[in-house]
Structure formats: structure tokens, C-alpha cells
Amino acid sequence: MASYTTKVLIIGSGAAGCTASIYAARAGLNPIMVHGLQPGGQLTITSDVENYPGFEHAVQGPWLMEQMEKQAAHVGTKIFHDTIMEVDLSKRPFIAKGESGDEYISDTLVIATGASARWLGLESEKKFSGFGVSACATCDGFFFKNKEVVVIGGGNSAVEEALYLANIASKVTLIHRRDSLRAEKIGQERLFANPKVSVIWDSAVEEFLGTEEPNSLTAVRIKNLKTGAISEVKTDGAFVAIGHSPNTELFKDAITLDKDNYIQTTPGSTKTNIEGVFAAGDVQDKIFRQAVTAAGTGCMAALEAERFLSGH
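User: That's the sequence. What structure does it adopt?
Assistant: C-alpha cells below.
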């Protein structure tokens, strides 16, 4: 078991973690970034990225994250392929323990563990992920311009995704397993008033259907939960919108979380309720959930950590 000491420990290696690492390293803070369960974060499961500034043409999500990590290493970040299993935030310096048995001792902490999209858990969903099946309309909606899409879900996320897609797609079908939506009333009113959107009630997706080589989604098989009737809905794209889960299990007893388990930060800041602990990216952002906003808060967290250290 080894022990490593740093001024800034960054947990998570997505857009927020990498950006925090770059800024902290350039400030001479010799940061350590620990990869976590999904090195590179959610962008590693995104194929074409067209909305990250700086690239004329679409770039591959995994390539973009590889470049960010290389940049972080180049400017002086030490990167560890480990997963933090335990954190003691009761006193400074903070102590984090990795799955490897190694200990990371740090004066400040940036939590950038992200959030995970909830999926239906179907084998065919994995097969067509990135080939017609997505969990982010803002990321992938553009690829379905003037095409027919389905959105699966019944909460705020589903209604927001459906309304966003209605501006792009020719037709949007919302599939919900109940006979009423859980979304806020104002969102429902907008949805029902939109001529491009229709709703299939009391139904669950049983399978995603499509062609092999190249993988391409063509339909979803649904089951009416009241009658048991099976039918197919033709579609070019399917957006699973059943919510996200922030990766905050590790901090639930130590840091103030909101009702949805996202880390609460001071408005206009990445500060948590613990001095010297900052949160960046999707672990504290349930509204935008974009790579560019995650990178922005990663920058903020590093700058705030630097200020905190200079004042202590």
C-alpha cells in the first residue's frame, strides 16, 4: 500500500475532472486525478460530438476525453488508475482510500464523479447504444433532423427531451408505462399542445429492433401493460429519458445533497458545505449536463481550490 500527498485531489476523470486537473496543474498545485469506475466519464460512451467548441467537424467522444487527459498529464497532473472507495472529510488534510489499497492525502478535494444515465437494462439497448439509442437529446438530437424518434419516460426529463426533439425531428412519440405523466403541469401542457408530439400510454419498450452491420435502429417493440398487446413502432432514433443518478454514494453521509442526491453547491460557486471541498460537473448539475458546462465548473473548482489554499 502506497501513500500519496497532494494539494488538490480530483476524483473523476470526465470533462470536469480533466479541466480541474489542467487548471490546478498550471497553477503549480501538482494535482492528483483518480480515474474512477468510468475513465473519461460519459463522453466515452458518446460517438459523434458536434457541440464541443473548437472542432469544425464532429469528433469522437472517447478521442476527445483521451486528448483532455493527455493535456492534463502534459501540464503536470499525476493520474492514477484507481477507484476511490472511502473518503474521510472530517478533518483536513482529507484522506481518500482507493480500491488498490493506496491512500491519497490532500489539502483540498474536487469531486467530479459525474452522473450516470438510467437505462432500461435491455440487451438490445446496449447493442444499439450510439446507433440510434441515446440518453441525451441535446447531445444527439441533431443527427435525427427531419426523422421520426421516440422518447421513453414520463417525468420532466422525458417531456423536456420530447419538446427539444420536436424542434428537430419530423415526429416525436412519447412512450410511457402509465396513463398519466409525472412531469410538471406546464411541461405537460406544452407537450400536449405540440402538433409534432403524440403519446402512447400504458406501454413499456420490450426490445429495440434494427439492422446488423451496420447497426441501425429501425423500430421499438412495445407491450401494452393493461391489455398485453404487443406492437412495433417504427423509428429512426430512441431517447431513453428515465432520469440520471448522480455518483454521490461515497459522500452521502459527509456532504449536503439535495433531494435527488446531487451535491449542493453555493450558487455561483463550486463550494460544498465542507471547507476545501468543491464539486464540479454532473455530480452537482442536474439541469444542463453538458461536457462544456462540466468543463466550465471544473475550471471554477480548480480556481476556487487555489484561492482557498492561498488563504490558508
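The longest helix spans residues 291-311.
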